[in-house]
Amino acid sequence: MSLVVSTEKLTKSYGSRTVVQDLDLRIPEGCVYGFLGPNGSGKSTTMKMLLSLIRPSNGQVQIMGRPMNRSTRRELLGKIGSLIESPPGYGHLTGRENMRITQRLLGLNDQQIDFAVRTVRMQNQMDKKVREFSLGMKQRLGIAMALARQPRLLILDEPTNGLDPAGIEEIRDLLRRLAEGGITVMVSSHLLGEIDKTATMLGILSQGQMIFQGTRDQLFSAATPDVLIDCTHPSRAQQLFARHHQTTLENSTLRLPGADDRTTAGVVAALVSEGIGVYGVRRDEQTLEQIFMSLTAGGGL
Amino acid sequence: MNGTAVRNEFAKMRHLHLGLLIALLGVIMLGIGLFSSLGSPDFDRATQDSWNTLIGGTASGITLAAPLLLAAIASRQVDIEHQGNGWLMSATSGITPGGLCRAKFLALGLLVAGATVVTSGLLAGAGLLLGITAPFPAGRWIGFTAALLAVNLVLIALHTLIAARVENQLVGIGIGLLGTILALFGTAVPAWISHLTPWGYYALATASGYVDGVLVAVTPAYLSIAALCVIAGVAFLLLTRQFDRKEA
Predict the structure, then answer these.
(1) Residue A241, domain CATH
(2) Averaged over B222-246, what is the pLDDT?
């Protein structure tokens, strides 16, 4: 699988304060990469380094197999659409006039602009001044500006920030459609729930360091959900394992945290050998939100 | 920075009422130039005094109006980038913040240059229409216009930088207001004091003045104004290049 973005030990420091540390990003082509982390974890700084808007203190960025630096920056930026911080748009101009500025800046044709505007479903709003747009419309116009160059990579920094549930769903739907169209999308958020249904790959950042990178399934397995055991004598069972495991009793169900499959099998065998009947063994169903919270230790979300 | 960026600056001027502000600059120049000439006891259609009073009046008009209006014009054109996240949008499209400032200067400079030259031409035409029979001092008039234009461009560059660097646009407008005072005092203080601030150069640009109570033709301080242009040009390039290196 080819990588659209890869970084090696990417680091950014301001004086003695390290904002991003030894980041090894791997974004495969055609995926929606959910870049998650609490506020202040270094997501925006990382995205700006990918776009060469700020210089890394250490490490390297490769975009589409080429190093991103001063000499390649302009050419590579032509293939990357982005929406960083607040949505762009000149409030005193109409949506159409804003798109024309983008068109002129990037040397695009009318078809490219029409395609971008239709993709974000803004074709009926383009004669309004941007200052009259809702936040959701501004976000969509910003995405249209980013899409107009028909990028291979789209980098969106918290595009759902401040949107109502309907607006969030619209952006999710848009991201899905873009990915289906072959665009690699990197989207950041501090709320897992906003992108976990859309992202096919997840990267979780905490205090400038990557604490997880992989698929949703890998994230589930990395988190090892608790084992729940239903048995005939739960109190006795708890006493039996009190020395070796931090078991708890919840409504006659024994909860065994951090047990892998081999440990679980051993526990069940031990219970049976002690004459305790086991009639239910299962993993606790964790939401991604719970896993995310436990990985980031609630880090200021 | 390229021609496309400059064309985009003109596109961004829509609905900003910059044309109105530039027209106001021209009207004030024209109005004060004509009013002060016609009301002056020195306005004698048959002698060079008529042209001298017209030049003096024009210089007064621009001294009064330009510092504040140029600050407002630059501020409006730059503030849209702060308000619309335009710096980042341009940077991700390959136009650096310094490049954007240079494009803004070129676009605004072209407008201000046009307004200065057209107003100057209208004043000369008005003088002829008013029946001035003394020979038109073409060389001095062109030199005076060029000197005014140079000072105007220096101020546009200065205010473009201030508006880009300081997000609160009241700061730039306040400096423009202070500039008006300094420009007005520039005509009453010794020439060396006028050299100390860019606004003082309006006094050095004039092509007529009173010497011992008599209105006479004077030569604008071309050398000083040329030096100002060189210093301002180098400073503008250096500072905008520094903007290019500034991280987003």
Answers:
(1) 3.30.70
(2) 95
pLDDT, one tens digit per residue, over A57-79 is 999 999 999 999 888 888 899 89
Last residue of a domain, one of A176, A197, A221: A221
Counted domains in chain A: 2
Query: Is A282 a residue whose pLDDT tops 80?
Result: yes
For residue A133, the enclosing domain spans 3-221
Residues in chain B within 8 Å Cβ distance of A54: 247-248
pLDDT at B200 (0 to 100): 96
B240-243: list long-range contacts, CB under 8 Å, 24+ apart: B240/B97, B240/B98, B240/B99, B240/B101, B240/B102, B240/B161, B241/B98, B242/B98, B243/B96, B243/B97, B243/B98, B243/B101, B243/B164
Establish if B3 touches chain A: CB-CB under 8 angstroms: no
Q: Which residue among B80, B93, B248 places its CB closest to the CB of A77?
A: B93
Q: What is the CATH number of the domain that holds A12?
A: 3.40.50.300
Burial (CB count within 10 angstroms: exposed 0-12, middle 13-18, buried 19+), residue B68:
buried
Contact between B91 and A78 using a beta-carbon 8 Å cutoff: no
Q: Hey, are the CB atoms on B85 and A82 less than 8 Å from each other?
A: no
Helical residues (DSSP H) of B13-85, grouped into ranges: 18-38, 48-83
Q: What is the mean pLDDT of residues A50-56?
A: 93
In this complex, the residue of B4, B5, B15 whose CB is nearest that of residue A93 is: B15
Q: Look at B94 and A93 and tell me if their CB atoms are within 8 Å.
A: no
Q: Which of A70, A93, A149 is most worth mutating to test chain B (most B CB atoms within 10 A of its CB)?
A: A93
ipTM for the complex? 0.88
